[in-house]
Specification:
single chain; about 325 residues; alpha/beta; Rossmann fold; Alpha-Beta Plaits; 2 domains; six-stranded mixed beta sheet; 14 strands; about 35% helix; elongated; binds adenosine-5'-triphosphate; binds magnesium ion
């Protein structure tokens, strides 16, 4: 079977700014693929190329079997997209927007009615569903946008940061819907996110993108396994940085990250290291509030690959 999405050496430059370089992707049908990366990594550029909204400056890509550059019409018929920056017509109501989308894609009226009723409960707008979109909050628009992308049941769906700006309850509903579309209808989904937790929860496979390049790819489990070490986390009253050198000197400790009141030590055998870490903190005359051992998270993988942290809740901006 042809894969749902294939990219070969795909690149995009804007004047002298290289937004994307040498991207290779092969996403089989039925997969949820997460593209994870910080601001400016190239996520939206990738999605916009795959949705035929932006021409690549190098390489090629096929979506649902068609070339995005030479056969964009056939690609567009088979995809749905909820992009980061979309122009929603503010004069229409939410319900009218969905009805229009149904017409554009030749969805039969009876089918459209049923789907709109289903999506109505997902987007959960209550009586606002019949109010003008110009009165919606950012989160409400976002939910409507995603419902619009799904109405014609495309086999391939692109969601660019679908939950950025949503409150926790709406985010959970969106996750449920992504899973439902994938499991019940077999929709292939490429989603981008800055949230490691989201990538971990939704994606079968993940690509970590940084500065326009794919720096790692695998299942969340595989990626976490690439960081083999345990992490000893100590919370401290006072300036944890005072214990930094002492912790770094403990045999088996590979690296130490000290923040104001917390210090983390990476070690191949966390259980053996936890005692020496506690002692070193006491010796530095700092008060230990608690000490725990954790296994690596995607955040650690990301840190290792890019030297930077993605922080939950940062950069909460939409459109
Ligand atoms: N039209 C454009 N003209 C010039 N530079 C652009 C343009 N679009 C994107 N870029 C640059 O390309 C890089 C990648 O941008 P992109 O929007 O793909 O990032 P992103 O991963 O989606 O980031 P975010 O998380 O902020 O949405 C950035 O450095 C951006 O400034
Ligand atoms: Mg983006």
């Amino acid at each position: 079977m042809t894969p749902a999405i294939v990219a070969r050496d795909l690149g995009r430059a804007f004047k002298d700014k290289v937004a994307l370089e040498g991207l290779n992707l092969e996403i089989p049908r039925g997969e949820v693929y997460g593209l994870l990366g910080p601001n400016g990594a190239g996520k939206s550029t990738t999605v916009r190329i795959l949705c035929t909204l932006l021409m690549p400056t190098s390489g090629s890509a096929r979506v649902a079997g068609y070339d995005v550059a030479t056969d964009p019409t056939n690609v567009r018929l088979r995809i749905g997209a909820a992009l980061q920056a979309t122009a929603i017509d503010g004069l229409q109501t939410g319900r009218e927007m969905l009805a229009l989308q149904a017409k554009l894609y030749n969805v039969r009226p009876a089918v459209a009615k049923k789907r709109i009723a289903e999506l109505e409960s997902l987007i959960d707008l209550g009586s606002d569903f019949d109010k003008r979109v110009s009165t919606y909050s950012g989160g409400m628009k976002r939910r409507l946008d995603i419902a619009t992308a799904m109405l014609h049941r495309p086999p391939v769906l692109f969601l660019d940061e679908p939950t950025t700006g949503l409150d926790p309850r709406s985010r959970q509903q969106m996750w449920d819907e992504v899973r439902r579309l994938n499991q019940e209808l077999g929709v292939t989904i490429l989603l981008t996110t800055q949230y490691l937790e989201e990538a971990d929860a939704l994606a079968h496979r993940l690509g970590i993108i940084n500065e326009g390049r794919l720096v790692a790819e695998g299942t969340p489990h595989e990626l976490k396994r690439t960081v083999r070490d345990d992490i000893v986390v100590a919370n401290i009253k006072g300036d944890a940085r005072r214990a930094e050198a002492a912790l770094a000197a403990i045999p088996g400790v590979k690296s130490v990250t000290a923040l104001a009141e917390r210090i983390e030590a990476r070690a191949s055998d966390g259980a053996q290291t936890i005692g020496p870490v506690a002692m070193a903190i006491q010796k530095a005359e700092l008060e230990l509030t608690d000490i725990t051992l954790r296994t690596p998270t995607l955040d650690d993988v990301f840190m290792e690959l890019t030297g930077g942290h993605i922080t939950e809740g940062e950069n909460e901006s939409i459109r």
